[in-house]
## 1
Amino acid sequence: MNKNDKKDASSLPDYTIENILHTGNWMNEKFSDHLKEYALSIQQYQVLSSLRELKGEPANLLTLQAEMVSKNSNTTRLVEKLRLKGLISRIQSEENRRMVEIRITESGLNLLAEIDAVHSEFKNDIVDGLTEEEILILNKLLEKIRNK
């Protein structure tokens, strides 16, 4: 009998929320540890990934902020740290002097390619033991909770 079997119906919502939060924190810790060897935070990784998805097109701070999982991230600070590492470029727009165009550099793309090679194994370890059907169900349920 597992923990869930011992819960009565009235405590299931509390248990479910607690379980989701605990799992999210556990995954954040594992992912953060995984990125430490690349001297990146999760938020920095998200910025780089968002820029890579744009395939060379520039982004601005508002675009990147909207893509962040944690909306409380200080995007300006994250972008500056990545710029100092040579992973992104920040150039004032010629069309609108108040706008800054942010692009991923070749070094940033190379770092993401290196991370991707190991990241695939890391992601598989997270869902190891779940069937493809269970993974699909889990994703549908999490999306259902988020999209209310």
## 2
Amino acid sequence: MVFFAVLFLFNMFKYEQIGGYMADDELKGGAVARAFSLLAYVAGGGATGNLSALARDVGMNRITAARLLATLEDEGMLEALPHGGHRIGVRFLGLAADALGQDDLIGHGRRLVSLLSKQVCWSGYMVELDGPFAVYLVKEVPQTPLVSNIRPGSRIPAYLIAPGRVLMARLPRASWRALYDAAQGDPRGARVTFEEAEGMLLEAASRECCWSLGAFETGIDACAAPVFDASGEAVAAISVAGAGFRLRERPADRGIIEDAVSGAAKRLSALLGA
């Protein structure tokens, strides 16, 4: 995978936007080297907001620095920050994870959940199962945060919430009853009967995304999709939640949100080798 990462950058810069193909000596010490130099600079915490300072620090002129930043951003190797500057992009992290055999679920998940939250303007979460409970690992909020009691570390009977259902639904059906019974130690566990929980799980198992429309917290809707690892096991769920009036006022947003949540879950699954 390292070879393909190098080949990708090689081909990306082999053709100058204003100068045609470069000579071999330029390829060996020119655009490709500058690209890696710039990526290493950003990975090391270097700031890119001031082009003059950036060009000086990495040893290139301002025009080249600006062009490389734009190209790396377009290719997903860098991400522009809201208030200026850049950080390493998800695509580059994916290449690195593949090359090193790493599958940092929380690290990649936090980045993707943050992007998802900004995309749909709802709070974003990542959840995993711990026995009968869904445990919230990550929470990212948009500029207008959702009024919710859910935070990282919250543990909720899995069948009561959308991200928990998409995970529990992908366990053997024969295990559902025991998990339901184990959740009865939580006072919220009996909010629904087992038959009701089973019906919700069967519906979740039949869909790519699972919705909860004001069922757990009044006035709050949620959408979730499963994340799979290299073995095909559902190891986590990505979800978003927001005020229910949005879907009542703009029903078409439901499809937009589903596509965004499903897309984020698929990207994280790909980073984990699925």
## 3
Amino acid sequence: MEKLNYMERFYRHGYEELLMKSIERRPTIHTLFMMNRLINGGGDREFYMALLKKVTERTDIEKEIRDVAQEYIDFQNEDE
């Protein structure tokens, strides 16, 4: 958690762009968790949700990663 808190110090200082590039390149459970926190923080929700959706549709990554992305989509849509 310390690493996450350290990285969040860069919120709105380039952190989001680097995170998006990382997720586009090779999403991980950790980077998806970080994106979910961005969505919770009220960032560019539509863009982030669309990126999560793209992750669920990829066939070049592990099913576990796709499933985690779908779990975050479901979680975020609970409030709607």
